[in-house]
Design brief:
This protein has 287 residues and is of the alpha+beta class. The chain contains seven helices and five strands, in the order H-H-H-H-E-H-E-E-H-H-E-E.
Amino acid sequence: MNLRTATLQRLLLIIAGGLAIGYFALLQPIAHNVGSEGANLAELRERLDRATLEAGLPRATSFAALDRRLEELRAATDAFSAAVHESLPRLELPQEVRIRLDEPFQLYSVLNESQRRLDEIAALAVARKATVTPGLAAGLPAYKPELARPELLWVQLATVNRLVRSAILAGLREVREVSVEPLPLADPADFGPALPPAAAPTNGTTNRWTVIRVHLTALGDVDAIGKLLLALTLTPDELKKTGLPDELGSRPALFVDRLLLRRNQLEAAEQAQLDLVVGTVIANEEP
């Protein structure tokens, strides 16, 4: 009996030792990993809750609802991309402007072209019996050494020329004021000493598009104003469908940024003053 009892005790000790070794060698690491995974899952859930709240969704939104919202966002992104590509032909600049943008910028070329445009507008105003403000030259694009992209002066000049010419050709009897929105200036850091890599600003713009805005104040009858607005916002091909003269057609199609019509009681009922801001949209990078 004593021998059997001793043998059983030894077996029990061996089994207990095996169980202890198994616990410390296998079960405890597994329990530790499960606890860590639980903490990671809790952190991920908290991050997901914050993201859903930032997206305007209620807390604890189901994964099925998130999947539906993701599909909606993908569909909206695809639709927006398709709309951008469909609109690109309407934003195409005239060939002569594209050539100027590809060439090295020369200030004297801009000045010569500005004077030529002024002479053409003056001759057109005389031929159409319209009045153009003597201060038109002051509203033309002006060069500054600190311009970030001086070549955009060509786009400004083309937009001013088109806007004033179209106003005269549409039948407005007086162009009272023209002005351009200032172009972006270069980062002041570009003119100073080189900064350490960590402090240096990132190159390029985060905006894919640049808008060149021009303001026009003109006087004429409402029908002429309607023709002008239609001509500015359509491409030559689109304009043909309206029955308006081909001479009003040009590229690109402009965007109406602001529009205000005023009537003067001392003027005829059909006469109005137009305050208009239009924009030319150009891409900063290849779409």
